[in-house]
UniProtKB/TrEMBL annotation:
It is found in: Cytoplasm. Belongs to the class-I pyridine nucleotide-disulfide oxidoreductase family. One of its GO terms (cellular component) is cytoplasm. It catalyses: N(6)-[(R)-dihydrolipoyl]-L-lysyl-[protein] + NAD(+) = N(6)-[(R)-lipoyl]-L-lysyl-[protein] + NADH + H(+). The lineage of its organism: Bacteria, Pseudomonadati, Pseudomonadota, Gammaproteobacteria, Lysobacterales. Its EC number is 1.8.1.4. Binds 1 FAD per subunit. It is an enzyme of class 1 (oxidoreductase). The active site is at residue 455. This is Dihydrolipoyl dehydrogenase. The keyword NAD applies. GO terms for molecular function: dihydrolipoyl dehydrogenase (NADH) activity; flavin adenine dinucleotide binding. Keywords: Cytoplasm, Disulfide bond, FAD, Flavoprotein, NAD, Nucleotide-binding, Oxidoreductase, Redox-active center.
Length: 478
């Protein structure tokens, strides 16, 4: 007989564990089902984000950034050294320790909040029953008055570049290289491709990124994309646009295997031979096998679960959140949906404002934005005004040795309400939240301009950019 719960959550990634913990905080008997295992073969909560995504990639980005500074910029500070080396195994070990710390932290949070954890693959059955096939082969059934599906997403595999976890890898494999590859090619110039390409480039790999689209980072503001492309080229990332890969082949034997890549660009058919190939062309909802017949939950043509504005599937008591539903595949978007749905179930208000979700790319320089880009506003026919300010004129940025980049504030031409904040430069993953807060409270560029910012600080770039909207910036010619 199925054990009864107020809430059963399928998936313990960012969306799922937030939903489970918040539901338990609100007094509901809650269970959470997750199938993932860590590198040690033991259950590991936290989803792609904690295990093989956000957290481990940032650990490697930080390690590689430290090494790059040591070999490229420490001499400017009067710091000298001899024979800098990178111990890849130790770097990967540090990354794994951080992952274990945080996945274990979720388990402790579940225990503290009395969330019942079940380890195995959960499938939704009719009548809000979740059948769990546990790792030991046994099955249990859980019945939820409410079921929240938070199944997450998987890397998209190309039919002509199947993952072998050795020479052709996804993000998981690229986080676990045992040595720096001599030649690494990445298919896809998106967030994953740029971040992991940057990691291995800093450590000495020759990195080529093949992007099928003709434009670089089209989702970002065009000025930001232009500067980013220029900086990445300076760093030695070979980014080739309009490059459509059609075939990959393995040549050689054992550790001497190479990947021969065939692609087509404006010059015709090209080939490229490399040691490692990272396929980073996006992710798809992990809904395969998730729904038994007769549940009533609908999937669209891409396997995404159909939900309304409040993440309800249309089936009584069944909700879906995170990467397996519409909207950006971002951990923090899943966080907010998980909390909102738990509160809706409890009879409280719950809402996620998609217009104020920040986007970040953790390259160097970092890229971050919230709201509309200039190209979007032009397409929508919205009259706007802008103000920009360079980090090269910000004392803190120059003192840090990171003067590249700028802040751009976009405001409505009539109301002055902030419509977007676009940043490229040092620590902008933190600075972007000035724009998030301003927009969430319907603030204006003048509001930002009249708020006192500490000096010297990186945030002054936003202050001056907001002042520049009305051509009154102090530290630049208007």
């Amino acid at each position: 007989m199925a054990e009864q719960f107020d809430v059963v959550v399928i998936g313990a990634g960012p969306a799922g564990y937030h939903a489970a913990i918040r539901a338990a905080q609100l007094g509901m008997k809650t269970a959470c089902v997750d199938a993932a295992l860590g590198k040690d073969g033991k259950p590991a909560l936290g989803g792609t984000c904690l295990r093989v995504g956000c957290i481990p990639s940032k650990a490697l980005l930080d390690s590689s950034h430290q090494y790059h500074n040591l070999t490229h910029s420490f001499d400017q500070h009067g710091i000298s050294f001899k024979d800098a080396k990178i111990d890849v195994a130790k770097m990967i070990g540090r990354k794994d320790a951080i992952v274990k710390q945080f996945t274990g932290g979720i388990a402790q949070l579940f225990k503290a909040n009395k969330v019942a954890a079940y380890y195995g693959f959960g499938q939704l059955q009719p009548g809000n029953i979740v059948k769990v096939k546990q790792h030991d082969g046994s099955e249990v059934e859980l019945k939820g008055t409410n079921v929240i599906i938070a199944a997450g997403s998987d890397s998209i595999e190309l039919p002509f570049a199947k993952f072998d976890n050795e020479n052709i890898v996804d993000n998981v494999g690229a986080l676990d290289f045992t040595e720096v590859p001599n030649r690494l090619t990445v298919i896809g110039a998106g967030v994953i491709g740029l971040e992991l390409g940057s990691v291995w480039k800093r450590l000495g790999a020759e990195v080529t990124i093949l992007e099928a689209l003709p434009d670089f980072l089209p989702a970002a503001d065009a000025e930001v994309s232009k500067l980013a492309a220029r900086e990445f080229k300076k760093q030695g990332l070979d980014i080739r646009l309009g490059a459509k890969v059609s075939k990959t082949e393995l040549s050689g034997k054992g550790k001497k295997k190479e990947v021969v890549i065939t692609y087509t660009d404006a010059s015709g058919e090209q080939t490229l031979t490399v040691d490692k190939l990272l396929v980073a062309v996006g992710r798809r909802a992990a809904t395969k096998g998730l729904l038994a017949d007769g549940t009533g939950v609908k999937l669209d043509a891409r396997g995404v679960i159909e939900v309304d504005a409040h993440c309800h599937t249309g089936v009584d008591g069944v909700w879906a959140i995170g990467d397996c539903v519409r909207g950006p595949m971002l951990a923090h978007k899943g966080f907010e949906e998980g909390i909102a749905v738990a509160e809706l179930i409890a009879g409280l208000p719950g809402h996620v404002n998609f217009d104020t979700i920040p986007y970040v790319i953790y390259t160097s320089p970092e890229i971050a934005w919230v709201g509309k880009t200039e190209q979007q506003l032009k397409a929508e026919g919205v009259a706007y005004k802008t103000g920009t300010f360079p980090f090269a004129a910000v004392g803190r940025a120059v003192a840090m040795g990171e003067p590249v980049g700028f802040a751009k504030v976009i405001a409505d031409a009539e109301t002055d309400r902030v419509l977007g904040l676009h940043l490229i430069g040092p620590n902008v993953s933190e600075l972007v939240h000035e724009g998030v807060l301003t927009m969430e409270f319907h603030g204006s560029a003048d509001d930002l301009a009249r708020i006192c910012h500490a000096h010297p600080s990186l945030s002054e770039a936003i202050h001056d950019a907001a002042m520049a909207v009305d051509k009154r910036a102090i530290h630049k010619a208007n």
